[in-house]
Amino acid sequence: MKKTNAEITLTQALPECIKENLTEADNPEITAKKILETIRISGHSGSVAGLPHGYENYPHELRYTKGDGIMLCSTPVIPYCIYSNESGDGNLGIGLMTINVTGKIVCKHLGLSAFGKDGRGLSELISAGFGLGSGPQPQKYFESFVHKAMRMVLPRVIVTDGMGFSEGYDAFLHGTMPLLRDNTRFISLVGQGSRNKMIAPLGTHQQWMTLIRENVHGYHQVFALSASLASMLLKPAGMDISMFHFYGGSTTGKTILLQLAMSVHGSGNEPGQKGSNILRWNTTSNALERSLADFSGLVACIDELGAHNNRGFSSTLYNITSGESKIRMDKTLEVRDNFTWNTIILSSGEMSVSEKLSSNKEVLTGGLEHRTISLEVMPEDSCSLLAEDEDVSMEALIGWADTLKSGLSEYYGTAGKLFISHFLTQKDDNGVLLPADNIRQQLHQMITDETESFISQLEESDDDDDDKAISLSAIQKRAMKRFALVSVAGKLAVQWGILPFTEEQIEESVLMLAYHWQNNTQSRYDPETSFMTALRTWLLNNLHVQFSTLGIKDDFLASSRSGFLDAKTTDILIYKDAFSALCAKHNMSVAQGAKALCDNGYLTPESEGHFKKRKRRGMEQDYYHIHRSFMNSDFS
Predict the structure, then answer these.
(1) CA-based angle 277:350:294, to the nearest 5?
(2) Nearest-CA neighbor of 348 among 273, 245, 279, 269?
(3) Do 348 and 303 touch, CB atoms closer than 8 A?
(4) 305-323 burial by CB neighbour count: b if 16+ within 10 A, else e?
(5) What is the CA radius of gyration of the chain?
(6) Which is nearest to 566 in space by CA: 578, 555, 577, 576?
(7) Average model confidence (pLDDT) across the chain
(8) 45: DSSP letter
(9) Of 374, 412, 391, 142, which Cα lies nearest the Cα of 259?
(10) Residues with Cβ < 8 Å from 480, sequence gap 6 or more?
């Protein structure tokens, strides 16, 4: 494959074994090309070089030589590699090269599934200029040739569904660039994602570093760059997907944060510009899932949360942080192959996740609190790394932003490849390449240590008041592991010369954002609000099914009853058993659930501190008296 100047320059900066394996990955194509060039100038003599037994190439045909001989193709063909998935039981195919009908040397990846479609799967070869016959008989002979070629000792190339690590953690596909620390099992990786070719470098890493060094001076910006690198380590770290959402007013630099993060891997163009890799929230769930799958293994950036107008935003959040698309059927009612992804998601918008949920009368649940972390951005945050006494004018802030906007469309795509190459090729104290398992264990320990350090620092008591000691909740401690991964990745990038900061600046940036997040009560999971939301949803679905009006004989339900409606006020009189079951389902004690309703003015107690009321005439149980206004209140 022909490389750009940026790719050639970047390759020279890679660790030696990665560089050597990249060169060797091109050798099969180079060898096949040399054979074809020899055939081109050979006149009418045949060549068996690179072919299975019984076949011969001529300048204008591939022949089966046994018996009377059969022309399989009116152009010469050389098989040069075998394709398969990592386990060898799927995505089987072969790499073929020819001098096509126009005289150009071309290569194509032919999957074996092409032969299961009455030969129609060979249309890509024909359109590329392979001289295949269109009838079933020539194509049957060509299929036999391919099967025999696959039994040859050819180099193996792994076909992956997306970008990221191989199963053995000894290789990483970044865009179209296969980064291998060892090529004994396979010589290369190729991906099937539609975005792979767009993840390519432009300019040099030094140019990108200079742009970052001179114009990045804020905690959030350093965090975004570190998070983009950390996203590639989710798999070896054994961690699930998380979303960091940057929110704030207009002109606070939120979109630039996404541009910085994406420039680590590919084009840092603004959303909407040609070649931009930044996604939009204004799309369907199906399209968003497909796009996330395309960026799996790298980082996914999504702009303008406020533009998301689909119902059930909490469901969307759960889906995108699950790493797997919903099961869907096609027109023939067959289940489609679902999409999967493994990436940190960086998002931006003018409202926080909890505010967006509240606008849909939804609440932030415990599971979402540590998976979707909202980080507020202020205009002054773009200089938060500078000394407090350093005066920065608004003109300077605007100048940095404008320089980044233009520069990130000119220099990008180098940091990610360099970072993961250094990660793959870490060595021990004696300069010996560490086994992949040791590298993973080392990463786990670094994340554990950083998590404990963050929790310890955030829980330190105030020097002037020991009573102000902070105690992080279990959910917040889980979130600290996500912050720790970002910090670890940023520090490694500094050690390897990939980010122009100090390790202290990385830790300070990540820790300050973690501190502000855990102090932001708006972004916390509130179990009481979550319970009340669930209770109201249950009542909406069951009010006319399991509740009849007390004292009205004709309004009687034969099915199971959960309580009554008051005849005068239509207040809800829910039986103690039904209320207790709902509380237990949502991990609330009955006292906690009733108190939450009472404190918010939605429940009338029997007396102060006693929430359950004695049963009325016609009722079978004691009950809890919930006001009808509860059904329409926006307590979220």
Answers:
(1) 20
(2) 245
(3) yes
(4) beebeeeebbebbebbbeb
(5) 31
(6) 555
(7) 89
(8) -
(9) 412
(10) 451, 454, 455, 458, 472, 514
CB atoms within 10 A of CB 594: 23
> CB under 8 Å to 170, separation ≥6 — which residues?
180, 181, 182, 185, 424, 436
- Rounded Cα–Cα distance for residues 341 and 162 (Å): 8
Phi, psi of 607 (to 5 degrees): -160, 175
Residues 6+ apart with CB under 8 A from 424: 15, 18, 170, 171, 172, 179, 180, 181, 436, 439
Angstrom distance (rounded) from CA 578 to CA 585: 11
C-alpha closest to that of 368 among 523, 176, 234 = 523
Angle made by CA atoms 480, 481, 484, in degrees to the nearest 5 = 85
What's the CA angle centered on 351, arms 348 and 357, to 5 degrees? 110
Q: Which range is least confidently modeled, 90-104, 378-392, 513-527, 592-606?
A: 513-527
DSSP state of 122: G
Q: How far is CA 327 from the centre of its chain?
A: 18
Taking alpha carbons only, the member of 351, 287, 356 closest to residue 317 is 356
| DSSP tag of 61 | E
User: If you ran DSSP here, which 8-state letter would residue 1 be given?
Assistant: -
Strands 279-280 and 243-247 come out as unpaired
* Range with lowest mean pLDDT among 5-9, 369-373, 403-407: 369-373
For residue 462, what pLDDT band results from cuts at 50, 70 and 90? very low
208-222 confidence digits (pLDDT tens): 999 999 999 999 999
pTM passes above 0.90: no
DSSP of 234-259, one letter per residue? HHHHT----EEEEE-STTSSHHHHHH
Task: State the Cα–Cα distance between residues 330 and 333, nearest whole angstrom.
Answer: 5
